[in-house]
Amino acid sequence: MQGNFLKGKTALVTGSTSGIGLGIARALAAEGANVMFNGFGDATAITKLQADVAKEFGIKTSYHNADMSQPTEIELMMRSAVEQFGGVDIVVNNAGIQHVANIEDFPVDKWDAVIAINLTSAFHTTRLALPRMKENNWGRIINIASAHGLVASAQKSAYVAAKHGLVGLTKVTALETAQTGITCNAICPGWVLTPLVQKQVDARALEGGISNEEAKRNLLAEKQPSGEFVTPEQLGALAVFMCSDAASQVRGVAWNMDGGWVAQ
């Protein structure tokens, strides 16, 4: 992009200690944004991650362990961002969990957890970030939805409902901020080889008595015509574009990066 064009801005990326969230956090850091990490993991590893990213890109980093299913913890995290950085200029709502079951067998507590973390948390970060963004007349809200925010798959009722809801929330946020310097958009990834997806690949390999590589090919063949995984780095580059001036009229978009998944 323009190189360091986000210097002085602060990005909060939820679920950013690994996978897609980390890829996006690193891409924003490379453009000079300070980063507040959030997510689960080993405390020592997270401290090292913070220090490494800060050193590599010459930025400030911090971490908040807010459980994204708890509104009070989200409020504490947003308050912490104000105390440390003066507020949040870029919010990337990436935290997500998955549970797979038929609707009649879907545990109610799992439904509630998937909706809370994948959808409701984005409402809370957005409502808490908007007042300062409006004061500054600049902000970027990027919701990481999914190809499942645009199309469905069996046995993923809560996830598909949450991600469709996230696309809807994106559109409303974009309309409410349409005449400001704040934009809101969704990114809808297809299969990305995150630790979560690698577990599914491992399970398939074990179950079918096939190699890991073959399990990956089989997984991709079902949905993703390119036969290749989307990478966190590619998603990071798209997020950076959405933060740029070039994207100031990209508003309320659900942008799929999915190797052709929803083109079918």
TrEMBL record:
It holds the Pfam family adh_short_C2. It comes from Noviherbaspirillum suwonense. PROSITE patterns: ADH_SHORT. NCBIfam families: PHB_DH, PRK12429.1. Gene3D superfamilies: NAD(P)-binding Rossmann-like Domain. It comes from the Bacteria. This is 3-hydroxybutyrate dehydrogenase. SUPFAM superfamilies: NAD(P)-binding Rossmann-fold domains. Belongs to the short-chain dehydrogenases/reductases (SDR) family.
